[in-house]
Amino acid sequence: CVKRFCFLLKDVWNWEQEVYTCNLGAEWAVPINLALGPSDGISYRTQNFTKLTKMVSFEDVLSIVTMKTNTDERGLLKLTIAGSSETLTLSFPSLSDANEVAILIDGYCMLVNHSIHSLWRPMAEDQYLVTLRGSSAPILPVHYSLDIPLSQTDTDNDDINGDYADVLSSDYHIDRRQIHMIESLGNGQFGEVYRGILRTDQQIEINIAIKTCKMQDSATTDAFLEESYVMQKFEHPRIIKLIGVCTEQPVLLIMELARLGELRAYLVANRSDFDLITLLLYCEQLSSALAYLESKKFVHRDIAARNVLVSNHESVKLADFGLSRQLTLDNSYYKASKGKLPIKWMAPESINFRRFTHLSDVWMFGVCMWEILTMGKKPFQGIANNDVIDQIENGVRLPLPGAYCPKRLFDLLQDCWAYEPTNRPTFLQIESRLKIILNEEQMNSHSQAHSKDRIYVNEQTLSISKSNTSTAASSLILLPSIDDHVPPKPALPYKNGYPNTRVPIGNNKITTGRSESSHNFQYRTSIDIKPTLYEPKESQEMKSTKSKEKISTPSSLLVDLFHSQTKQIVGAVLALTRQYEMSHNNGNLSKNNRPLSPISDKEQMQLVRNIAIAVRDLLQTLDYAPTSIKQMSEQRYNHFSSLVVSLIETVRQRNYDNMNEHAVNIARTAKALFDDILKLS
């Protein structure tokens, strides 16, 4: 009877599973819900996820240790895991909480191993260190120093006081009298950076960059010199070269000078001087440098446009190796403990667990490419560092850089941002794909240039024709190719997929003004076309003169992007109001009579977030639009954002009737805006 009661009770309450609130890690702790049970083993879920992730089985636990931290009253639970080179550390509000979980885990371990011997050893931290260093027991073969608090710098795996140390080659020692500082270039992490001249023994003058260290204590100096220990091992044309070091106080690092400075600042200051091919060239050059680092078993850990230097307009080099670490044969990753890290550039496993690999560098390089393609925009602007991981784990990625970005290139970015590290490409694969994309864009550019020359000749031979004929020819010259259909800006996927072009809301038919069977525009015009940022300068010099009052229109790719984003907003609205559901039999959209009440509050808010993201992307795209479209949108559609705010408020208040009304108004507003854009184009 009791046994049957337990089975019935399990349907409403899982009595086999115990759940505890704790933090994963000791120094940089990640809040989790720890779940223990015979079927779950030792599992966890984060605050934003309901699905459990299994960390380890009870059979794999070799030892259990609990202790109190020196800094506060928290309790630490450390598990030695078979086949792992480090301990699994969990922190609890108190030592008693840690002991309670340790007793339960120890009981499960004795049960599954059919053993009467306990694996649990409660002790103070100093006793724990003595045990690690003095015990010959076979169950303690791992590197516990990874979990023990060290200095305030990021030095987990560096073994500062060990038997081995990095030594700077004597070839890099430079006499301070050979150096002449000229001007300051800015501030670095440790001090000012100067432009200067190095006079060699052969009386040759070399332009150099000089990094200074403001603090002269030994700890800061050692950290400052760490970059030189790393850089002396590199010899690559796309990596800034270390020239030498002045080891007398104050210590100086002497490096190759990149005359044009940081890449991000250079992009922002010279927006009009770039075309897509140059930006692709930068990406390809950096990928070759990172492929070289990968072959040398180094992780950079700080790949960003601010850490790339510009030698000339067509040459960039990777720099700033202060966070770089070399991986060993025993460890395929580097684990950080302390120090400032670039959260908005980091991969999810690096944010959550401070693990850095070549594949986490791939994620960062994807963000760096996005910076380059957006001409220096910062990633995840307006989002706090603490909220970035929530965005990533909810499927949000950085948006399409712009209408000029080829689909193949955007697909590469998405591959770099795969949540599972093993699904990301290697740097060798990235370098190969970027070379292919760059070659194709160069070929397209040459073919378009020849085509424009032929059209220009034909226009000259027909100059005696009517003016509208020549105007049409001029429009053809300036019209960019639409062979690469630009994908919509990314948003969270919908459960039922995206709707077709023509979708009804209520009794009104909403259509985007395009043919269902074609991507070509139904509306064409012969008025002047404002050149885009990435059109050749020859095209920008050609102007048509159909009328005195010239009106700027967007390129076909820009309008194509508006079209995709309008579809995305309408699809998000339909998913929220549950008017349609994808049929799993034939893939067609069929009517769904579900009530407007949500399946869950979390799902409801997620659908609203989809709409908000889609509207945000559309409004951001307006920044690339001609002045006429911007003015029109500001005059007629400045209430667009307020509609989204109203929608969010109605969902929070569970007012589903008004929610439906606000959502439909958003879709209709997006449709009306797109229609007006087409009229102006």
TrEMBL record:
Where in the cell is the protein located? Membrane
UniProt KW keywords: ATP-binding, Kinase, Nucleotide-binding, Phosphoprotein, Transferase, Tyrosine-protein kinase
In the record, biological process GO terms are:
cell surface receptor protein tyrosine kinase signaling pathway
Q: How does it sit in the membrane?
A: Single-pass membrane protein
GO MF terms here are:
ATP binding; transmembrane receptor protein tyrosine kinase activity
Where is ATP bound in this sequence? Answer: 211
Q: Lipoprotein: is it a keyword of this entry?
A: no
Q: Which residue intervals define the domain Protein kinase in the entry?
A: 179-438
Catalytically driven reaction(s): L-tyrosyl-[protein] + ATP = O-phospho-L-tyrosyl-[protein] + ADP + H(+)
Tell me which Pfam families the record gives.
FERM_C_FAK1, PK_Tyr_Ser-Thr
Show the InterPro entries listed in the entry.
FAK1-like_FERM_C, FAK1/PYK2_FERM_C, Kinase-like_dom_sf, PH-like_dom_sf, Prot_kinase_dom, Protein_kinase_ATP_BS, RTK, Ser-Thr/Tyr_kinase_cat_dom
Name of the protein in its database record? Protein kinase domain-containing protein
State the organism named in the record. Adineta steineri
